[in-house]
Amino acid sequence: MCLALMLGATCQAAPQTPYAFGVLNQRSLQATAAYWNPILNYVSMRSGVPLELHIGRTANETTDRAVAGQLDFAYTNHLFTPKRDRLGWRVLARQDSPGIRGQVVVLDSSPIKSLQELDDKPVAFANPYGVTGYYVPMDLLVRAGIKVVPVFSGNQEASMGQLVSGQVAAAGVNHQVMADFAQRRQLKYRVLAESEAYFDLAVMTSPRISAADGEKVRQAFINMARDPEGLNVLQLAARSLGLPQVRGFAPADDRDYSNYRSFFKRTQVPLNE
Amino acid sequence: MSDAQAVRGIRYSLFSRIMGAVFALVLLMYLVTLAVLGLPLKERAQQHLDLRAESELSAITTAIQDHVLLRDYPAIEQAFAARTARFRVLRVRLSSPHVTLESRTPKLTQHYPTWFSDALDIRAPHANAEIRVGGTSYGKLEVELDAGPAIHSLWALIVRFTLLVSGSLFVVMLILRWLLRINLRGLYALSGAARAIANGNLDARASLAFGAPPEVHETKRAFNSMADHVSRLVAELEKQRAELMVEKERLRVTIESIGDAVIVTDANGMIAFINPKAEEITGFSSEGAQGRRVSDVLPLINDKTGSMAACPLELALRNNTVVELDSHTLLLPKSGKRIAISDTAAPIHSDDGKVQGGVLVFQDESERRSLMQRLAWQAERDHLTGLWNRRAMEDKLNAALSSVKHESRRCIFCYIDLDRFKLVNDTCGHRAGDALLQRLSAIMARRVDDRNHYLARLGGDEFGLLFVDATLQEALEHIQGLRDEISRFRFEWDDKMFMVGVSLGVTELHSSMTDIGDVLAQADTACYHAKSLGGNLIQVYEKAHPALRKINDEMQWVSTITKAFEAHRFVLYRQQKIALVSGEDTQHYEILLRLRGDDGEIISPGAFLPAAERYGLAPSFDRWVVRNFCAYIDTHPEDEASYALNLSGRSLGDSGLADFILDEIDKYSFDPSRISFEVTESAAIDSLDACENLILTLKSRGILFALDDFGKGQSSFGYLKRLPVAYLKIDGEFVRGMNVDREKLAIVKAMHTLGHELGKLTIAEQVETEAELACLSKMGVDFVQGYLLHKPAPLPVG
Predict the structure, then answer these.
(1) For domain A102-194, which architecture applies?
(2) Residue-wise pLDDT tens digits, B537-568
(3) Which of B147, B168, B149 is nearest to B33 (CA)?
(4) ipTM for the predicted complex
């Protein structure tokens, strides 16, 4: 016991190496960092588990890091594909939102009124790995028998930018991201197709992380909105992105994301794993 | 203005001043502009660099912010490298707790001087910032830029500005130089003319031909007008200077030639000039005396007190008046020999009355004072014996008589007459007589103290001895001692021995005496009596003494003569002088004086003339003769003879005689050359100067003179050269018996030959025998006179 105490004291005294917390690229790197760094700092402070933001250049790269074992925690929905699901990552919490849906949108001024009119038209997607940014809207188009020319812009707002600039006829987007973008840019758009609702991205932990640390992190996340300091952090983070409302975190587990696993099992869109 | 300022003022020409002023002004404007524009430029460059650094920092932050978030350090390094190479970033560094990344590039080669960058003091632009995203620090980013390009830009700007200013200045100076040369050409002409005038070319003028500004043109005209005026003034000054030089040379020669010493000083009494005579007296050269005080060159002492005397010139300058030196002042020159001087010091005034200097004129008075002393001595002393002379004794007698009358003092006077003195004179000559007088004088002088006893030579062999504050007894004792000593004295001359005695007449002065004439008369009477008793006796005057009374009676002759003179009982006689040479038609007579007695008897001159001579009546007789003879000759035109009139010795001393004679002659119209005068040789010698003057004065009117009794005096013939007489009248003593006495014959012959050799005619008097006449005739004597030929006879009146 003494030895354990001594080791504990030693471990306590030495600076603890922070866990790599990967965030899926939904926005630019800067916006992502500006949003997530305050949150991770708060969670680290509250949970006592040091977390460090790790982002890949693209969502796929971030996912690859998770797959490669370079991440300890992740805020993602890319790990529910059949192959990645086997890595054993588990859900700790989720974005406290009604859920997200995949949409195929055009500008309100666009003459395109239906999915059929998008046939052979260029349609922007965030990347070929995004759930609501590619798989779900593309699945809508495939199931509708529409063959489009996908244009990958890197992230969802880039796709929206290409739509605005007229480089593409439509964009496959996360409905929440699109709504936020349109509000921020005073943009009017029209939804041509929309999927069912999926919970937004989940805070997940690698199977090598202890349950205790995972629980501490989970508790910190889900209590954040109720903590004035945490709420303040969330407000600052939301303000950095121009979000209309604060989005906290809600308790969640793997069951809350079973529709992801079901989608990936039945979708006709080839998976890029 | 100080001298240094004045020198600085003339060192720079107007051309240089204007050019320099414009140059300095442009240079100042350049510097001010440089400061006004350059300082903001520098600040702006610094701000620009700082902004650039901030901008670069921002750019690099932007470029690497994704890499930072991705932790893509190679990409960051690549971005750093690209950035530093492209934008001349000297150093960029990202440092975090986990990693430090840095990239550097070397500075570019400087193209501006180091001093410029040091003066500019632009700090290297540096910026840093912490890369923080969402409250998380990703490290500190630092950026440092190279300030060289900015400094180079400023340097290039300044160089261009300087070149522009220099070029502008050069052009401005060229234009200004051209303008100044055009406009100053007139002043240069003016300057050249002024220099030419200064170098002596007074005809130089400033040319009016050049075009020049009106001011310069007018100045040249004024200058030329002034030069004309100056030329006229200079010409006038040259003329006056030449006149002044002549005057100055005349004054210089005069001052250097005059016998007076002259010292000229400035107003402070410092010597400016001394003339050669002053150099001689003071012993200072003119150069050596210059700048010294007069008292240094002319130290004076008082002869009486021996104390230093005040410098008269300094007194004259101080009191601004003429100062004459005290008569007892001596000069102590460098030689140490004391020199008696007299001087006059006077200030020199300028036209406005200010004292400009002083002049001191002085003379070496040594000789004059010595002469004055000698003259004073001679005036009172007998030149032969050194004793007091008659005049001095008369003065002392006057004083003594006054003291007797007013102070009741007792004084005794003794008249001393040598016995047998004539014997010495006659046998041994005057030299022997003079030597005897000197020896006896020395003997007598030893016995007087010149305080209570005064011894004087009254004339010839007569002496006077005055005793003051002495009783008769004391005087007699003294006199007896004197007589005894003289009695014991033996005088030797040419192997001859003489005994000389003295006759002494003594009288006591008393208050009843009228004047010293009484004193002298009483003493003379007493002396005369002593001599009449055989000599070598002392006779005290006693009024009641019978013998003395008799002498007094004899002296009544004087009274008789005087009365006869007043009664016109004198008559004129004449005796002819026969000419032995042929061709002489004019008759020559000598005018003689005779006295007619109360009984009508003619009295010969031997009876009355000595008394007349002794008591000073002869001059009156001479004048009477001249007056009456002139009247005679004027009233007797038929008488065409020439006449010779005798003049006594005392008349020769009468300074008014010549005028009297000429006045008498001028009253009438006869030829003055018909008159001649005869003066005895001894009288002429006794009054040589007066006689010479008389002869010359009358000779100018044709009146001739004869030297009477020639040879009787046995004097030197030297005086003959001074006496321009026409005749030598050989003394009758030598004529009488000359036919039998070979010595007389020889003497007469010698005198005659001497007279002829001197161009004078000879007259032999007292010719009484045919033999004597034959001898004289044979000898060639010009005139003879004597009873043999013509006896004196009255003038043919009627």
Answers:
(1) 3-Layer(aba) Sandwich (3.40)
(2) 899 998 878 777 766 655 666 777 777 877 88
(3) B168
(4) 0.78
